[in-house]
Design brief:
The protein is of the alpha+beta class and 374 residues long. Helix content is 19%, strand content 26%.
């Protein structure tokens, strides 16, 4: 039966088995919490119970006191979606990514829209298509306008892309009608995952005006199978980018980012058939964000919208100033105008059989392979 576990080294700890062995007495109803197929009930318990469990696990691991019936090799377990996704929101928080996208699509205008430096721009996505790492990604179909055609057509997307992001997992909910103050935002955060917000750029480009992303973004979002607790990442917090102009009062705080190295690798079907390893195509850092997690949460709830246990908040594509730091193929290939080399092959966007893996320090990998449209 599905149940909750913790990854440590080469092992997965079965928390329900650990509770049955009496090793988690600090956590009320530990066996009931961890016999469930998702983290939601545990996450809803709040920071005090998270810290108690975390501290006890560290003690057991450090002292070599984990019972054998609670230990499994990581390769023996089947990773499932780690939590039930309540709502999904995706932001647009990297200055470099937003600037690159603006230069691609609006070359004669200011690359940033007038609101970008005043608020964290975002959109509400589709929680039902968030999938765990390893899930095949079916090439989506949609309506778009092909170059030289007289009218739009309904076709399989020809510009399937990736987006390298951090995902924030909400644990404790907030009250509907009460905005979350920026200095209280992290109290609601359980942890982080890597996130790939797959995109069909041709569909997205045709449909975006006037209401924003829809079918071009809603077909799949992949996340890691293991959520890294925020407590394990707080020592990686560093000052973020200077914000000019100074944000409005409800967003005003010292902006912080996570000092985590991130990368993207790609392996084509041909490379896989020859037994060749994936090729790294992107190296960047989670420091390359303008709007912080706290500011994203404060803005998300500023109108009284509430947080729910299991909410997933994407950072938006994380890109740096150099070409190899661009966190999407849109930027890496400059919307198809500058193909990049892949072990003797050339790529602008993803082809069927391509497998993409997002990796990051202290975070679980996220992989997905493109399969043909049905």
């Amino acid at each position: 039966m599905p149940r909750t576990g913790v990854a440590t080294g080469e092992h997965a700890i079965d928390l329900a088995a650990l509770a049955r062995a009496g090793a988690l007495a600090e956590v009320e109803d530990a066996e009931g919490l961890f016999s469930q197929a998702s983290l939601n009930a545990f996450m809803a318990g709040g920071p005090a119970i998270w810290r108690a469990c975390h501290g006890r696990l560290r003690e057991l691991v450090a002292n070599g006191q984990l019972p054998s019936e609670a230990l499994f090799q990581l390769g023996e377990v089947e990773p499932l979606l780690p939590f039930e996704v309540a709502d999904y929101v995706d932001f647009y928080s990297s200055l470099e990514h937003a600037t690159n996208a603006g230069r691609i699509f609006r070359p004669e205008a200011d690359p940033l829209p007038p609101n970008w430096r005043h608020l964290p721009v975002g959109y509400h996505g589709r929680a039902g298509t968030v999938v765990v790492s390893g899930t095949p990604i079916v090439r989506p179909c949609g309506q778009f306008w092909r170059h030289g055609q007289a009218a739009p057509e309904y076709l399989p997307s020809e510009r399937v892309d990736i987006e390298l992001e951090l995902g924030v997992v909400i644990g404790t909910p907030s009250e509907h009608g009460r905005p979350v103050p920026v200095d209280e935002a992290l109290e609601h955060v359980f942890g982080l995952v890597l996130l790939n917000d797959w995109s069909a750029r041709d569909v997205q480009g045709w449909e975006t005006v006037p209401l924003g992303p829809f079918l071009g973004k809603s077909f799949a979002t992949s996340i890691g199978a293991w959520v890294t607790p925020l407590e394990d990442l707080m020592d990686r917090r560093v000052p973020g980018a200077a914000q000019d102009p100074v944000p409005l009062d409800y967003l005003r705080t010292e902006p912080m980012a996570f000092d985590l190295e991130l990368s993207v690798s790609l392996r084509s079907a041909g490379m896989a058939s020859r037994g060749e390893p994936p090729q790294t195509i992107v190296r960047t850092s989670a420091r390359n964000v303008y709007w912080s997690v706290e500011q994203q949460i404060a803005h998300l709830t500023a109108n009284g919208a509430s947080l729910r246990t299991g909410d997933l908040i994407g950072s938006g594509t994380i890109s740096g100033p150099e070409r190899e730091q661009r966190g999407s193929l849109l930027e890496l290939s400059w919307n198809g105008e500058e193909p990049f080399e892949l072990d003797g092959e050339r790529r602008t966007y993803l082809e069927d059989g391509d497998e993409v893996t997002l990796s990051g320090e202290l975070l679980s990998d996220v992989s997905g392979r493109i399969v043909p449209s049905h």
